[in-house]
Amino acid sequence: MKKPKPLHILEDWHDSINLxxxxxxxxxxxxxxxxxxxxxxxxxxxxxxxKDVAVIETSLGNIEIEFMEDVAPGHVDNxxxxxKEGFYNGTIFHRVIPGFMIQGGDPNTKSDDxxxxxxxxxxxxxxxxxxxxxxERGILSMARSxxxxxxxxxxxxxxxxxxxxxxxYTVFGKVLSGMDVADKIVNSPRDAADNPLDRxxxxxxxxxxx
Length: 210
Hints:
Low-confidence stretches: 1-13, 43-47
Mean pLDDT: 86
Oligomer: single chain
CATH topology of the largest domain: Cyclophilin
């Protein structure tokens, strides 16, 4: 089936806007909105429904994540901001526990000093956004200390259903693809602190609009 051309729609909107302009019914705000709508129609962006996706590139493969803006908008915005700043690039998954989760996002892990791994952050904390979304396999949630409003940059991906975390940690996304990569990460040989013996680096964490 051929895709219908938007030409007639565009002509109709153009004629309608011209008519309204002639009658003096548009204020500056309405004119701006009308212009934006025309631009969407011409570029085909109207109704595209694009959403931001996080892509975590690692030495073992990529993990792609969709966000839950409606559940934890503050955490989503924070993750996107840090990713766009390159904050996560070069950090590692420093805590991996089979049957539970993999954790990363600590800037201290750019160093080989393992004693500092797991203690770093962006220099600020964000307010908790707990919800009823269950911590099922593939869920992206925020790590924190005992203080609820202590999250900053560290996050974890749930490997197995962990209901005891529900309403106590902020869920803000879910893995779209790459759980096979997460499985490789969680099963990596690790030390007594659950830190992988070999660095599993996030070479690049980026935000893509799809």
